[in-house]
């Protein structure tokens, strides 16, 4: 037998990063006591997680949300470990460990994927090694220990009626029937036969479907009149496609499974080809025009830049000079001498403006910079204020309607009053200057009046009188120059096709055309291009429904006019007759195939009948055998439930019956009743406390009958749902009937803990009490004095 010797927690729920170990060794009864909320149930959760890889009482509620933490991790820890140590009569001590995976699988923090978080390890030769659930199943002597643990070994605090409430009567029977290993081989054979039966059904449906398809696709009743059809030799309409995967099916040497539907489709395709040749002239012309009209970007550059390309160098030079002058203007208008000095090509600026005095300008600016460099302290501040004051006064002269001071916001009667007041303040600041400061101000005023202002006036006149293209127009012109050859070809093609366009082209730069106007101009040229195709022949639109001509030209002629041979329409007529002849001659083979299918279908029906008969017999025999096996737990459940309940509606000492209400020879449903003559399930006749007692009885009965290797029984705080009488009966049952088992029981009531301790110690059983709140364990001794009767 195997039971739990110890468990060690690390970062699990209330247990922190310091490993905490609980020892269960050499104890018939282990009591976890202490107030609620200190980790009693967490101990059971940890044992369940270590043994099964999940915690069954967790409920996924997050929907599409992805939690950021692990539900059982202490304070968001990344290292969570549960180590379980077993006592084994044969192998001695054996250790396993559930450890949080690293890295975590994607979305595994969701409760719905909780089991994906954990990796199982086994201690082998002193080292932890990864292992699988199969190892644990083998060690604990179970094919599916995760299921058996919840049925045989673990009674949860709030889920004591889980087996009864979560399963209907049929599901209860199926769940209990999984325990009967005796029927496993028969079930496997039955499953194999079911698989064979499904395959036979699929083949039968396929045969029937093929038969119906042939009957509807071919008019079998009229096949006699189509006999003796003469088939001519095969020929290709499109020989250049014969060795390609894209070759049309109707032009291949062999026409397989030629149905009426396919025949109609092939004939319609040949009609499309004949119509294509009827309208080929208009189609090819329209296709060429459409291709030209699709070159919208080229047409845009054709409109904006084609006529300006001969003067591209002049336009580029003009735009370059204008940009240079505008950039220089930004430096000059700032009146910042350092910025003005950074204009490295002042000589070039004066030459561009055709203005003299470049040397004088440079000398005076350098003198002024030198004079400013000598300024220090308050005088320097005053001169700088005067400079900004003068600049502000200049700017105000450009706003004749302004009458509010831009500095203080004070309102004046008119603009002239504002200007006079600003000038007066300027004179006042000048009066505060020293002689050296006054000299600097004078030099600055002279430089502004004599040197700077004439230059600014010249720049304004230059920009006003110069018409150069914008930067966007220059970029467009450069791009048009790259496309010059294509633009020339477009121009020549428009002239050749006699498509008027000169009235739309922009004659010179700069232009004031907007993006909207340019779009309209592009649309107009496209409209004129497409209009030049002329009116199509009668029936063209109907024949080209869905642009079928584009597909014909692409798939059959590879977008190459050289393949469009004149004899193709006549070949299409011959191909129509050839396909019809092949279709008519194929009916003999269709009738033969149909006969074979009917014979095959009858054989499948016979096989399906035999399989169903065998399956029915097997199911009945397996059910009857299970019916016999259910008697293994009927008596223990009746005895254990009677001992715990003591008294209930059915009478004193009466137990619970396991009943199949269908009453047949097979086990189909499982109903638990308190009176054999009643058909009402105990879920509807007993209180929650009594139902809990019945579930504990059922678990204990299952454990007694089927649990062969793992001896531990876990009961989480049964006091919450059971009364004192049932508790008293439970302790007697556990002590007397399960003395060879390891009982792990939790309770939040100290009196119950002491009562269980007393009952077990009185009969010489070992007890270990563990106070989870205090993290301490006690091994009470039998100091009770018993009086003889």
Automatic annotation (TrEMBL):
Coiled coil: none annotated. Transmembrane segments: none annotated. Gene3D superfamilies: P-loop containing nucleotide triphosphate hydrolases (3.40.50.300). Residues 7-219 form the Rad50/SbcC-type AAA domain. This is Chromosome segregation protein SMC. Pfam families: AAA_23 (PF13476). It comes from the Bacteria.
């Amino acid at each position: 037998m195997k039971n739990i010797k110890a468990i060690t927690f690390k970062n699990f729920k209330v247990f922190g990063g310091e490993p905490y170990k609980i020892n269960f060794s050499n104890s018939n009864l282990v009591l976890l006591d202490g107030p609620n909320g200190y980790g009693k149930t967490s101990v059971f959760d940890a044992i369940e997680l270590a043994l099964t890889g999940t915690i069954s009482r967790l409920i996924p509620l997050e929907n599409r949300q992805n939690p950021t933490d692990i539900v059982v991790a202490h304070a968001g820890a990344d290292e969570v470990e549960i180590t379980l140590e077993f006592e084994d009569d044969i192998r001695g001590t054996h250790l396993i460990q559930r450890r949080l995976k690293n890295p975590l699988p994607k979305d595994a923090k969701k409760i719905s994927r909780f089991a994906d978080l954990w990796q199982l390890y086994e201690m082998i030769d002193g080292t932890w090694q990864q292992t699988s659930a199969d190892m644990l199943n083998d060690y604990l002597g179970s094919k599916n220990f995760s299921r058996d643990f919840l049925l045989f070994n673990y009674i949860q605090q709030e889920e004591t009626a889980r087996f009864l409430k979560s399963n209907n009567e049929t599901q209860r029977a199926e769940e209990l029937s999984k325990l009967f290993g005796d029927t496993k081989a028969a079930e496997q054979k039955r499953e194999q036969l079911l698989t064979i039966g499904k395959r036979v059904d699929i083949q039968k449906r396929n045969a029937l479907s093929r038969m119906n398809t042939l009957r509807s696709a071919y008019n079998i009743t009229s096949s006699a009149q189509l006999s003796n059809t003469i088939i001519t030799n095969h020929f290709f309409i499109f020989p250049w496609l014969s060795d390609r995967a894209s070759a049309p099916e109707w032009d291949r040497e062999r026409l397989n499974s030629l149905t009426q539907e396919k025949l109609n489709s092939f004939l319609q395709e040949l009609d499309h080809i004949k119509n294509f040749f009827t309208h080929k002239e208009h189609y090819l012309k329209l296709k060429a025009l459409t291709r030209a009209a699709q070159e919208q970007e080229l047409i845009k550059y054709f409109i904006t830049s084609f006529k300006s390309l001969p003067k591209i160098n002049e336009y580029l030079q003009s735009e370059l000079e204008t940009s240079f002058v505008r950039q220089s203007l930004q430096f000059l208008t700032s009146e910042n001498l350092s910025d003005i000095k950074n204009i490295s090509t002042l000589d070039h600026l004066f030459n561009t403006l055709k203005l003299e005095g470049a040397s004088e300008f440079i000398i005076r600016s350098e003198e002024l910079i030198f004079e400013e460099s000598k300024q220090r302290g308050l005088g320097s501040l005053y001169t700088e204020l005067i400079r900004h004051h003068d600049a502000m006064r200049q700017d105000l002269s450009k706003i004749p309607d302004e009458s509010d001071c831009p500095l203080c916001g004070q309102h004046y009667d008119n603009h002239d009053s504002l200007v006079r007041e600003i000038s007066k303040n300027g004179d006042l600041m000048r009066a505060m200057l020293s002689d050296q400061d006054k000299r600097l101000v004078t030099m600055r005023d002279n430089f502004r009046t004599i040197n700077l202002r004439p230059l600014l006036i010249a720049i304004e006149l230059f920009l006003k009188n110069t018409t150069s293209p914008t930067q966007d127009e220059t970029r467009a012109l450069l791009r048009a120059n790259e496309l010059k050859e294509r633009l020339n070809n477009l121009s020549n093609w428009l002239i050749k096709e006699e498509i008027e366009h000169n009235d739309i082209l922009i004659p010179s730069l700069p232009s004031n055309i907007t993006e909207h106007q340019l779009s309209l101009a592009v649309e107009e040229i496209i409209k004129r291009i497409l209009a030049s195709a002329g009116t199509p022949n009668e029936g063209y639109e109907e024949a080209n429904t869905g642009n079928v001509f584009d597909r014909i030209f692409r798939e059959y002629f590879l977008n190459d006019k050289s393949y469009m041979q004149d004899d193709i329409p006549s070949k299409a007529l011959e191909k129509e007759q050839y396909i019809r002849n092949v279709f008519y001659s194929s009916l003999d083979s269709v009738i033969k195939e149909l006969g074979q299918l009917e014979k095959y279908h009858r054989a499948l029906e016979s096989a399906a009948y035999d399989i169903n008969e065998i399956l029915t017999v097997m199911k009945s025999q397996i059910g009857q055998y299970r019916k016999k096996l259910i008697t293994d737990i009927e008596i223990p459940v009746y005895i254990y439930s009677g001992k715990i309940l003591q008294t209930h509606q059915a009478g004193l000492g009466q137990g619970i019956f396991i009943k199949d209400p269908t009453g047949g020879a097979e086990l189909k449903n499982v109903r638990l009743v308190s009176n054999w003559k009643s058909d009402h399930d105990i879920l509807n006749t007993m209180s929650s406390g009594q139902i809990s007692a019945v579930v504990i009885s059922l678990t204990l009965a299952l454990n007694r009958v089927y649990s062969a290797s793992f001896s531990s029984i876990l009961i989480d705080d049964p006091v919450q749902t059971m009364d004192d009488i049932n508790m008293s009966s439970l302790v007697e049952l556990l002590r007397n009937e399960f003395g060879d088992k390891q009982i792990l029981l939790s309770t939040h009531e100290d009196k119950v803990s002491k009562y269980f301790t007393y009952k077990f110690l009185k009969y010489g059983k070992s007890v270990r009490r563990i106070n989870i709140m205090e993290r301490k364990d006690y091994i009470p001794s039998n100091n009770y004095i018993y009086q003889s009767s």
